[in-house]
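dumping the sequnces here before i forget
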Amino acid sequence: MNDFVLMRKNLFRKPVRTVLLLVSIFIAFLIFSVMVSFTEAISSFNTKPNRLVTMSKINFTESLPVAHYDRIARMEGVAAATHMNWFGGYYQDPVKGFLPVFAVDPESYYEVYKEDLPLPEEVKAAFFNQRDAMLAAEPVAAKYEWKVGQKIPLNSNIFSQADGSHVWEFTLVGTIPTPPGSSQTGSVLINYDYFNETISFGRDHVGWIPFLTTSAAVNDQVINAIDARFANSADETSTQDEATFNKSFAAQLGNIALVVTLVVGSAFVAILLIVGTTMALAVRERTKEVGVMKTLGYSSTRILRMVLGESLLLSLIGAALGTAGAAALLTALAGAGGNGPPIYFAPSVILWCALIALALGLITGVLPSLEAYRLKITDALVRR
Amino acid sequence: MPDLIRLTDVAKSYSRGKEKIVIFEKLTMHIEKGDFVAVMGPSGSGKTTLLNLLGGTDRPDKGTIEFDGQRIDVLKEGQLAGWRSANVGFVFQFYNLMPILTAAQNVELPLLLTKLPPKKRKENVETALKVVSLADRARHRPREMSGGQQQRVAIARAIVADPKLLLCDEPTGDLDRATADEILGTLQVLNRNLGKTIVMVTHDAAAAKFAKRVLHLDKGQFNVAELAA
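..and the predicted 3d for all of it:
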């Protein structure tokens, strides 16, 4: 036996209580790990230091006139520009069949994202020249068993055609390989001209305008110039680098940052209160035992260490289970394949979880351990 | 026999709200090595306070306490804890065993404070449990044992680190007569055969008969004649 065994035995003295505490810590760390992995996944997409994005100053769901694209493309310091529109697409089922479909200008899009579009010449040519051409990320095509040349009907939950139909038919002209981190992960690309000609509203507008600068060194200068160019117009702009844009894109999708902050923050605060109170109660229940241990010769410092260790042990076990659970869940989800961007378990989560677990253990353990430290033997032994 | 404990002009009082309760004003006494002393007296006479002072779990307001020639009243909290683990074994009225630990683990507790290797600790625990005739209950938890057996485990815990002094606070107060006599017999054996100095606080005159001498404490003072004997 040693102090660690004593800590462990004390921790599991009331197994149901300990298991319930562990479950609450487990859930908080599971949510936290998944959320952090999600935001990390979004921000880890291949970004180029000289690739910037201009969108409406209001937010990315507000479209810009396509004329903005022409003006930006001609601005000093801009090497190549393109534009993208969120199609709001899904295949067959609006929920299960959700797809990140983007209406793009094929040639300029290729110029701006060519590193992530290793397309054979014939595929490239078909994508550039065919009005109803569609490219799909390989996992998406594999999931729906789409074959090149196949006609694919895609629905939009935003746009409609002149006849009121929400369905467009596209021809799959090729697939896009998407290694981890690819900016094309999960994407489906369609031709903007075809889209623009057939929609019943929002014509000649684009969602956002990605572009390359001649060098990352001129980014700030170009950002300022673009936003100044459209300042005080009906369609003011906000230009930012691609990594920041990806994060804000994700944040708009589900207001992820707010969700992470609120859900995880409130979960941790609740756990802090629950675990702290329970630990204090647990130590108070053992007042006499603490007194006996001190009588036997255990120093107050050693008792403090053991109570604090118990609280840390609880927190670390819960955090380890939560983190491992998140890793297993995300691995399973990644393996199952999905339409959206795959979320991989981010190794940095382990460090974050360890730090938070340490802080949680220390904060929840500090009061009970100090109480045990200060406890006088003569007081402890007379308590019932 | 030389003195193991010497209290000189010890004063001790407690505060209860605004009231000051004086337990000892000027207590002087000594206990020789190898003695077995029963301390009797009415409630509030200062018996438990005396045990607390002898065991270093409380400090005198004034006066000195020497143990084997060493002043213990001047030791700091950490030093006092170390001194207790090396020199004093405690036996309580309600056993005070850890319910989550087996008998052997309870007995091992004081040895975790030593530098003994696990194997040697195990041997010492087995020996201590044999002394109290409980070797066969080593793996039992307190709730699986009778009161008498629990108290014998507590005695094994008190002697496992081979202390010079055993302090027993009403060790038979929670036991029936037959079991109490067994426990007292065990204490007598420890005193006679292993030379342990024992100070036992009791209300029970029959229990006090197992001691070599009985001291009566009343209003913070011993009977002078008994003390001199």
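Residues 177-194 of chain B form the longest helix (18 residues).
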